[in-house]
Amino acid sequence: MLQKTSGGGSIPTISARMVPKERDTRLDVLRALCLLTIFVNHVPGQYLEYLTHKNYGFSDSAEAFVLISGLSVGLAYGGKYVPRARLALTLKIWRRALALYVAHIMTSIVTLAIFAGGALYFGRQDLIGEINIRPFVEQTEQGIVAMVLLGHQLGYNNILSMYAVLFLMLPAILWLNGISKKLLLLLSALLWLVAGIFKFVPSNFLDEGYWFLNPWSWQFLFVIGVVFMTFVRKGGTLPRWPWLVALSVAYLAISGVWVLFSWWNIDLSFGLPAVLTGFDKTFLSLPRLLHVLAIAYIIAVTPAISGLAKLDSDHPLAVVGRHSLPIFIFGTILAMAGQVLLFVTGRNPVIGSLFVLIGIGLHFAYAYYLEWLKGLTAAKPIRAA
Hints:
By secondary structure, the chain is mostly helical. Helices cover 63% and strands 2% of the residues. It has a two-stranded antiparallel ribbon.
């Protein structure tokens, strides 16, 4: 916008609508905590692993990450999927799915190289027996095809493939969300239930197994995030019911005690399907789903808690959360190197803990590098009037 001056010229002014709103960093911060926790949990056998919240409840950082992803997608795309823009936005979303697929293949190949390199350098051929690598080595030709077609997944390298499938489904999710949020939730819940009861899950090619994280099950948690965020964007609010707060706190307490005392042998199924009563991660059993939703509800309706995550945009956690995909790839590769290090050192927990601490620091360093790189590419020379 231009404003006339007394000399007949004009100077640029800024309209209020042109000023970008300050970014709410809460999702970034929570996403960063999930990314760091995933890294810690992906280097098993060291002390910091026991501090993550998977040791105090039914769900872990994977559930939190997918829910936050759904919330972020609802925030980014929820108000944009309108008739005149659907084709362009669908292509943009599917391009993101392709990027996730490529990232999955890349991290899998690097993981193979790290473990094969460790086996060669340290003379530890038994490393090939780790994280589902042996079927690939024994059937290399079939393994290459299977990996490209997502028919074989390595351990700790199975989140991005599931996430890519969710993004392929996202245009349909957004379309149904625009028609009826209740219908979307109903269909999503039905798919989750059918997948859990009838074991409807993508299969592996090299063995008789299947995907560790079933997208037909995990889409329900993702959809819940999308629906809630688009509901809030349109002025909706999440009610703070005292009875639901009390019920959520009680459930979190019970699940914490359950895990701490390892009450896994207690059978409370009463003949119901395992997806409703078990703790299976592949099919996102109901106890795990309720646990992450209870945590999310407590955070959402308690300003004193959610406010803790509202940090400055240049806070280290906010910076890490803004670059989730490259940080996740970086953390996965670093964790694979950590697994090899622990393996060849006899799973020494002290060495593992030191590696994880250094790795966390490297996460922040890499995030700031990405932020610096982004600033370089975004900077444009200012032309004189």
